[in-house]
Write a structure and sequence with these properties.
With about 350 residues, the chain is an all-alpha fold. It has one domain: Formate dehydrogenase/DMSO reductase fold (Up-down Bundle), CATH 1.20.1630. Strands 1-2 form a two-stranded antiparallel sheet. Helix 9 packs antiparallel against helix 10 and helix 9 runs antiparallel to helix 13. The longest helix is centred in the first third of the chain and has 32 residues.
C-alpha cells in the first residue's frame, strides 16, 4: 500500500511541474521575449486564467506527503525550512506581480511588476530544482529521522546543477507554450528560442549523469538491477525526440505536449531510481526514510485510498474542462487583462 502512495505522490509532483512549469517558464522568459508592453500583456494573458489553478497540484503533493508519509513530511519541511520560506515569499511575490500589474496604468509600474514576475518565476524554478537535487544527493538524517541544513549546505554544487538544469527545462517548456499560444513577433521569438534550447535539454542529462553517479551511484545502478524501470528514461528520450520533430514542423501544440512528457520522464526516472527511499540519507550514512518506515499506518492508507481517487478525478475533470474552454484559439495582443 505504501508503494501505491509513493506512485500517487510521484504523479502529483509530475502534474505540478508540468502544469505550473510552463507558466514558470513563461514568467522567466517574458522580459527577454516580449519587447513591448503589448507583447508582455499577450504573454501574461496566455497564462492568466490558469496559472494560480496550476498551483493546486503543489498543494495536493504536500497533502499526499503529509497524509501518506508524515515522517518524511516532518523531516523535509523542518530540515529545509529556510528553503520553504523562500518558496512561499516567491509565490506571493509572483502572484502579486500578476494580479496588480493592471491596477496602475503607468509604464514604471508595469516594468516593476514585470521584473518581479520574471525574477520570482526564475527563482522558483531554481529553488524547486535545488530541492530536488538535495533529495537525490541525500540529507544528513539522524537516528530520529531529522536533519537541519543551513543555506550554504542547501546550495551545494550538485543541487545548484540540478536547479540550473531545471530552469532550462522549464524555460524550454514555456517557450514551446508561447510558440503555441501567441502570435506575431512574440511567437516567432519564442519558437526560435524553443529550438535553441532543445540541444541544451538533450545535453543536460548527459552532463548530470556523472555527478549523479558520484553523489548517489545506487540511483543509476538500480536500473541494471531492475531493467523494467528503464521504461521511464526511455519515455523521456522518446518525448525529447518527438519534441525535436514537432518543432521542425511548427506543430507547437504537439511540441508543448512532448516537452511536458519529457518532464514526466525526468521525474519518474528520478522516482524509480530513488525507490524505496522517499528521503534518502547522504551516501554512506545509515539512516534514510523509505516508503515503509516513513508511511502512515496501513488502516489510514487504506481508508484514504477510498477517497483520494474521487477527489483527484473531480479536480482532473475540472482542469480538463477549464483548459479546453480556455485553450481555444490563440492569444493575440489585444485579448485583455488577467
Amino acid at each position: 500500500m505504501s508503494t501505491a502512495w509513493f506512485c500517487f505522490l510521484a504523479v502529483m509532483v509530475a502534474m505540478y511541474v508540468v502544469l505550473d512549469g510552463f507558466d514558470l517558464g513563461v514568467g522567466a522568459l517574458h522580459l527577454r521575449l516580449a519587447k513591448t508592453d503589448e507583447e508582455r500583456e499577450q504573454a501574461t494573458a496566455a497564462i492568466g486564467p490558469v496559472w494560480n489553478g496550476n498551483e493546486v497540484w503543489l498543494i495536493a503533493s504536500g497533502g499526499i506527503l503529509f497524509l501518506a508519509f508524515p515522517a518524511a513530511y516532518a523531516a523535509a519541511f523542518s530540515g529545509l525550512y529556510f528553503g520553504l520560506i523562500i518558496v512561499l515569499w516567491l509565490l506571493v511575490g509572483r502572484g502579486l506581480a500578476l494580479e496588480l500589474r493592471h491596477q496602475i496604468d503607468h509604464p514604471m509600474w508595469h516594468s516593476a511588476c514585470d521584473t518581479v514576475f520574471a525574477l520570482s518565476s526564475a527563482a522558483l524554478a531554481l529553488v524547486f530544482g535545488v530541492a530536488l537535487g538535495n533529495v537525490v544527493r541525500g540529507v544528513p538524517l539522524n537516528a530520529r529521522g531529522y536533519f537541519s541544513l543551513p543555506l550554504f549546505h542547501i546550495l551545494n554544487w550538485y543541487a545548484l546543477l540540478i536547479g540550473v538544469f531545471g530552469v532550462i527545462v522549464l524555460c524550454a517548456h514555456g517557450a514551446n507554450f508561447l510558440a503555441w499560444r501567441t502570435t506575431g513577433d512574440l511567437r516567432a521569438r519564442a519558437a526560435l528560442l524553443a529550438r535553441r534550447l532543445w540541444p541544451v535539454t538533450l545535453l543536460g542529462p548527459l552532463v548530470l549523469a556523472w555527478p549523479t553517479y558520484h553523489e548517489r551511484h545506487q540511483m543509476l545502478t538500480t536500473f541494471g538491477d531492475h531493467p523494467w524501470r528503464l521504461i521511464f528514461p526511455l519515455l523521456g528520450i522518446a518525448a525529447l525526440a518527438a519534441q525535436f520533430v514537432y518543432q521542425r514542423r511548427d506543430q507547437w501544440l504537439h511540441a508543448f505536449l512532448a516537452s511536458g512528457l519529457f518532464i514526466v520522464g525526468l521525474l519518474t526516472t528520478m522516482a524509480a531510481g530513488l525507490y524505496p527511499y522517499i528521503l534518502p540519507a547522504r551516501q554512506g550514512q545509515p539512516y534514510g526514510l523509505t516508503v515503509h518506515n516513513a508511511a502512515s499506518g496501513h488502516r489510514a492508507l487504506v481508508t484514504a485510498i477510498v477517497w483520494w481517487p474521487l477527489g483527484i478525478a473531480l479536480a482532473a475533470a475540472y482542469f480538463v474542462f477549464a483548459y479546453r474552454l480556455f485553450f481555444r484559439g490563440q492569444h493575440g495582443p489585444n485579448l485583455g487583462n488577467l
